[in-house]
From TrEMBL:
SUPFAM superfamilies: Bet v1-like. InterPro entries: ASHA1/2-like_C, START-like_dom_sf. Residues 20-155 form the Activator of Hsp90 ATPase homologue 1/2-like C-terminal domain. This is Polyketide cyclase. Belongs to the AHA1 family. Pfam families: AHSA1 (PF08327).
């Protein structure tokens, strides 16, 4: 079974970019809480809390903070982790597979070898058209794009080999 069906999922938003860094390094930036906290969130946001239990069913929790102090908590679980190829997580469940109050999306992040670089793809898969549209209107492409810019800066200039 492939995690990449032909074309996009029905309610999908995605970003793809080739990053001039090995995928092991980009994967580390996604899976080490102290590294993820340095780039997670759009410009102007910080991530004062990042907690990861890197196993299937393990907790993935972040709190992003806006310049005005407003906090944006997110919590879910990892569904799949294949170093350094793929990370899948969802907010549909919490630890212990307890259903969340409202499932919003499942995220599939892939790190493909591409001529010594990393072809990075982040796919946000939503349960319905309304959630997909809401996420797009929240600024998915701008926000996730700015996060990706920060991730690229981290892995290409700030992170040791």
């Amino acid at each position: 079974m492939s995690l990449h069906p032909p074309g996009n999922a029905q309610y999908e938003l995605s970003l793809t970019r080739v990053i001039d860094a090995p995928r092991s390094k980009v994967f580390r930036a996604w899976t080490e809480p102290d590294l993820l906290a340095q780039w997670w969130g759009p410009n102007g946001m910080t991530t004062p809390l990042c907690e990861m239990q890197l196993w299937v069913g393990g907790l993935f929790r972040t709190v992003m903070q806006a310049p005005d102090g407003t906090e944006y908590p997110n919590q879910g679980v990892f569904l799949d982790i294949v170093p350094p190829e793929r990370i899948v997580f969802t907010d549909a469940f919490g630890p212990g597979w307890v259903p969340s109050n409202k499932a919003f999306m499942t995220v599939v992040v892939t790190f493909e070898e591409h001529q010594g670089k990393t072809k990075y793809t982040a796919r946000a898969l939503h349960w319905n058209a309304a959630d997909c549209l809401a996420h797009e209107e929240m600024g998915f492409h701008r926000g996730w794009g700015e996060s990706l810019d920060r991730l690229v800066a981290l892995v290409t200039t700030q992170m040791p080999g």
